[in-house]
TrEMBL record:
Its EC number is 6.1.1.15. InterPro entries: aa-tRNA-synt_IIb, aa-tRNA-synth_II, aa-tRNA-synth_II/BPL/LPL, Anticodon-bd, Anticodon-bd_dom_sf, Pro-tRNA-ligase_IIa, Pro-tRNA-synth_IIa_bac-type, Pro-tRNA-Synthase_IIa_type1. Catalyzes the attachment of proline to tRNA(Pro) in a two-step reaction: proline is first activated by ATP to form Pro-AMP and then transferred to the acceptor end of tRNA(Pro). As ProRS can inadvertently accommodate and process non-cognate amino acids such as alanine and cysteine, to avoid such errors it has two additional distinct editing activities against alanine. One activity is designated as 'pretransfer' editing and involves the tRNA(Pro)-independent hydrolysis of activated Ala-AMP. This is Proline--tRNA ligase. Residues 47-468 form the Aminoacyl-transfer RNA synthetases class-II family profile domain. The keyword ATP-binding applies. Transmembrane segments: none annotated. Belongs to the class-II aminoacyl-tRNA synthetase family. ProS type 1 subfamily.
Amino acid sequence: MKQSQILIPTKKEAPSDAEALSHKMMARAGYIYQVSAGVWAYLPMAYRVIRKVENIIRDEMAKAGAVEMMMPGLLPADLWKESGRYESYGPNLFKLQDRKDREFILGPTHEETFTSLIRDSIKSYKKLPLVLYQMQDKYRDEDRPRFGILRGKEFEMLDGYSFSADQAGLDAAYDKQAIAYRNIFNRIGLEYKVILADSGTMGGKNSQEFSAPAAVGEDTIVYTDGGYAANIEKATSKFDGVQQHAALAELAKQATPGAHSVDEAAESLGIESNQIIKAMLYMAKMADETFQPVLVLMRGNDEVNETKVKNALDCLELELANDEQAKKYLGASFGSLGPVGVGEDIKILADRYLEGLVNVACGANDDGYHYINANRDRDFRVDEFGDFRMVQEGEIAPDGLPIKFTKGIEIGHIFKLGTHYSKQMGAQVLDQNGRLTDVMMGSYGIGISRLLSAVAEQQADENGLVWPDSIAPFDVHVIPVNAKNDDQMKVANEITTDLEAAGLEVLVDDRKERAGVKFADSDLIGLPIRVTVGKKATEGIVEVKIRKTGETIEVKVAELVNTIQILLKNNLQQAE
């Protein structure tokens, strides 16, 4: 391919709003073009990378027994109303109407659509198990699209779905997908972690997330050197609760003027912060659309993990109460809230670290006052204890090793949905005994377009992109230093013909640009191997540069094909 015939609009400067390395480099290298906020065009080079990623995915999906198909992106709202997600999904859902006022959405994911297909097509367990998948654009109305194509309103995604007659079938499909995902990310050349994750709006109870460590990542990965890994919303630490045995002291109310934080209250009362209950009031939207006030109690400065609370309540939404609601339900402002005297209309959850404490301090539900020597059962009730706190770096994980934090980009997620959708939407089959049973489902997703960002974040350098051999838009960049020099162009054309005959994809910079411009653009574009045809072309010698390492060697033209094949093979082996 001649570079003069392909659109690669390179730039010296990154867009002024670009924060992420991947955004800066892909924009500068002419891979992406912003059409509007959160909406991007994938220019020819990026499109070639995406197609190579898709081919890897197709190969591994076939090995896992999955079959590709395509659903529409425009979906009737009724399907999502049937599952309950039309309202619960939130403002990220694009909603629209056709000319006859029928309600539609732009699909952010396709659980409902595939469930309806199986419901209407499969009636017997004999037709199962079945794994279907597609690769198509998805739509989410992100409030703050950012980091280029990493978080946009439109993006390409693989979404796959397994359908089984029983739990064993679901487990087998899930395990095969987990292996396929590892193979896909290994072949692409990504560093990644497989972590325990929350299912969120997807439903179901079991899920694993595949996350690529990167400084720009919006997820926090909790991990240890022993292999434990979890999303921050799902992570837990080893429970080392303490059972205090002091005699119960008399409840007393004390003034704590100006004490709005745990540390300020501890100082005012002359006690340790871990002997204070922090009370946070939330409003939970339940399945019946009603709102339930919930008081969450934490030890000292521990932070509430709202995802864990939401899961414990099995609610649709969970939001921190505002000052007006705090006054309405508890009669005080945040900083003075506590569980003493709270009525049955407010559910009380407490973190497990509070269970063994006695004679604790807590807000008195009276601004500027705290109780001391408050004790569970005598002075206040707890409806449920559980793990409701955010873990902290340095704590001990369940595997006995210290917890570490890193940022990560979610690149894939697999879910055991069970009967979450099939039960609501009536997807049933006759089992071996002739009885109707709900279909067991799994859901599997890979953010295809964001894989480009993940690779760029991990492998780009100050000069530009560095693509792994497996997904690079071309294998080799051939650069004649002077396109007006007949000898150089002759050699460039000859080696291009030889390389292509050997099955390699070659980009030839035939532009009439200065050598410095060509080399700078070559580094920006980031192809694995660069072949420079310069002054020694008449001697049958060219220079080969490995983009990833910067290493250069002189090679005889007659040995070039063999040399490049060896270099690319070595690069692939190192990536594996």
